[in-house]
Amino acid sequence: MDHLLRAMKTLPQIRLQVAGDGPQRADLEALTRTLNLDNVEFTGHLTGKDLEHRIAAARFTILPSLAYETLGKSILESYAWQRPVVASDLGSRRELVRQGETGLLYPPGDVEQLSGAISYLAQRPQQAQEMGAAGRQLVATHHSPAAHYQELMQLYEQVCSAAHKPGSIRGVASARNRLRVAFIGGRGVIAKYSGIEAYYEEVGKRLVELGYDVTVYCRTYFTPARKTHNGMRLVRLPTIRSKHLETVVHTLLSSIHAAFSSCNIVHYHALGPALFSFLPQLFGKKTAVTVQGLDWRRKKWGRLASRVLRLGELASARVPDATMVVSRTLQEYYRLNYGIETAYVPNGATLRQRIDSIYLKQWGLEPDNYILFAGRLSPEKNCHLLIEAYKKLTTPAKLVFAGGSSHTDAYAESLRRQANNHIVFTDWVAGDAFTELLTHAALFVLPSDLEGLSLALLDAMGAGTCVLTSDVPENREVVEGAGFTFRAGDVDDLRRMLDLLLSHQAMRAAAAHLAQDWVRDQYQWPRIAKEIAAVYEQLAGRDVVPQDRPAPRRFAEPSAPPSKRAA
């Protein structure tokens, strides 16, 4: 509310009525007097006809709350009275407020943009009226009692139908000949390094539990010399340790080995390895590719490497018997660019609980008093942007980077040169130390300009940690309604959001709770493994009950300054 009052200081010609009561009312009224606001009136708590009369008499409604609401009932009430809404861009508001159509969103805590949004609607009564009408239509179509009743009945019917469906994936795999699956494309297992290796660990062992034979092709330098790990058979093959040849050579050798093996399905991971997905097919094998992201866009690759990876993208769409993608954004990309329907199977995460602080002291950290980045220190992750924004803050919280480089040693070294008592680099962290680092962080930040579906982001959300990410579509897809975003590449917007979140512990706690619930509902590894198994069963020509997933959430475009919006 204090942001709204400061915005009203710049709008003396517009009158504001504040309906509501609470412990901060006296402080807000004192601030009103301090700012000499003659255009602000506190009405107190209103109900029934009194509230209806006030809403009906208003031109639009303002909701500046920093509370992280799951459903903005006040927004729907305003729409019902055919009034548009100006609201802070938090929680479910982006789902309810359609930018420029039913109202305006502004970055939370940004007084200038809030003032601009209020002024914009006040100066355009006809457009405000049209927005209000669109809001009322939205309520009538999607939020009426009849629509609510219909959705409940559909849910009940799905539950009843599921109770009568045939057996689970486990039953299918164990009752018939066991499918033999090979993983190719990652470095291996045991020592977790990146998304693919973590994927191997988590999915592979669960496929074994579901009754599948799983073979993982590993690089000799990466995976210790052993024959099995968590029920998976390990095949260690050599490669050439270089940026451009390592994956190519190992994938080629692995593909030849798999082609002459007894496996039924060869599952490739990432765009580069997808180039070889035709080889096992020549020997009667089925192949699948999981696309973790558009790797050719990564800044670490030169022109030739990027072109090769573009060919890998083409191969992933045209060659394998099944193509899986880890995000809805990638699914839409393949639909628009290649005209194919891919299987959406996201990455997963483990739910973590806060554990006792043991390792933090050795890094000079205190619980709830540091900002965390975890992952590769590569240019597309924009760690330099995070450091630049952090240096503009006045905060006792430290900035921590947990990770190492991936063929980007020069970039990583340029970051490490900025280490001091407040900027800490830990290198790769795993096990209990990683759980401790995640669960005790005040805030997890992912400032990248390119993602597929970040496992580190899912890990932070699964740990019940508040997250702040760049607003690239792949990140928004995960954090909308359960985290915070800033404008990608905008260091000042990143600084603003860091300052806002570090200053509001209650906001962080509410968002962290929602984030963990979202991971629990959508991104747990057992569910992911069953969805992958369903793809395998279909490749084998077996009937299987599809794993139901809700339709993707509708996202509005990020808020733009009112001055940039069309009249």
Automatic annotation (TrEMBL):
The lineage of its organism: Bacteria, Pseudomonadati, Acidobacteriota, Terriglobia, Terriglobales. Residues 545-567 are annotated as: Disordered. Residues 194-349 form the Glycosyltransferase subfamily 4-like N-terminal domain. The keyword Metal-binding does not apply. PANTHER family: SULFOQUINOVOSYL TRANSFERASE SQD2. Coiled coil: none annotated. This is Glycosyltransferase (Modular protein). Residues 2-137, 363-512 form the Glycosyl transferase family domain. It comes from Candidatus Sulfotelmatobacter kueseliae. Keywords: Transferase. CDD domains: GT4_PimA-like. GO terms for molecular function: hexosyltransferase activity.
